[in-house]
Amino acid sequence: MSSFTPVELKHASRLLNHGAVVLVTSQSGQTRNIMAAAWSMPVEFTPPRVAVVIDKNTFSKQLISESGVFGLCIPGAALAKTTYAVGSCSGRDLAEAGDKFQQFGLTPITGPVLGLPLLEQGCAAWLECRLIPEPHSEQAYDTCFAEVVSAAADPRIFANGRWDFRDDNQDLHSLHHLGAGTFIVSGRTLDY
């Protein structure tokens, strides 16, 4: 007999969903947006490819569909409140009065390959991504597949191809969403 308690299927994804939160940036023409996403992962090594779940009804998904590109920024612990905030409102609602970058005082840099708005301040890393078209599934599913065309990281926390979580760089430790607005921060390293 199991000692585990059943989990409602609507919460089953939360059992796996504590990878690093990303901030998805998008731009089509002069219109830009930023949103938080809890579901992202690498799916190929060479060329590097990623998958990220972006609800097909969001403003970000609209801009990504129009432009074929998006950015993934990995916010550090210092951006927890901002990460939650940009993930809790729609860029469509702000389009008349500016955008979420302006609303939340975020100053992006311009990506070197795709020209996307990317965040460095408060972030551990960023990736510029080119959407891999999946016409047969784009209307039915929320998962976007993309090839990473450029990436950069803050050397205080990622260098020589490895993460280095230390006490002196805690503001850059990655955020992990547990659901319902609750986050944990990575930190304890085990070496074997």
From TrEMBL:
EC number: 1.5.1.-
GO molecular function, one term: oxidoreductase activity
Domain of life according to the entry: Bacteria
Class of this enzyme: oxidoreductase
Span of domain Flavin reductase like: 14-165
Cofactor(s) listed: FMN
Cited InterPro entries: Flavin_Rdtase-like_dom, Flavoredoxin, Split_barrel_FMN-bd
Record Pfam families: Flavin_Reduct (PF01613)
Stated family: Belongs to the flavoredoxin family.
Protein name per Swiss-Prot or TrEMBL: Flavin reductase family protein
